[in-house]
Design brief:
Largest sheet: 5 strands, mixed
Order of helices and strands: EEHEHEHEH
Shape: globular
Structural class: alpha/beta
Distance between the termini: 24 Å
CATH topology: Transcription Regulator spoIIAA
Number of helices: 4
Radius of gyration: 13 Å
CATH superfamily: STAS domain
Oligomer: single chain
CATH architecture: 2-Layer Sandwich
Length: 124
Amino acid sequence: MSIEFAVHKNVKLVEVRLSDYISSDEFLEGRKTLKELHLQLGIRKVLVGAMPGTKLSRKTPLVVLYREFHDDRLPLSIPFAVLIEKGIYPFLEYVESIAHHQGRAVKVFHAREDALAWLEVPQL
């Protein structure tokens, strides 16, 4: 599977790590897992990103995660930090705006430290 989950229970954070192209089935399964982690462990923050050095195809549905930002599967109060290499998906900043207008806190970052600071999580 091209999606890995790392749970940091002490700070109620889950990292969603993408390592390659993800299929629609993998995306749906990942979304289900994220919802289960929220319900079972009280996850309150999400960091989504590509593993360092991963060359993601433009077909990689990283942006499809924005569907999660405006549906009722997770509470609107859960912030999503999206971590990507600079220049790969310049349109993701537009996703921030869409999510904001839908009441979801989403922000794109190019540095892990900045994403964790925004999520108010100490360095892991």
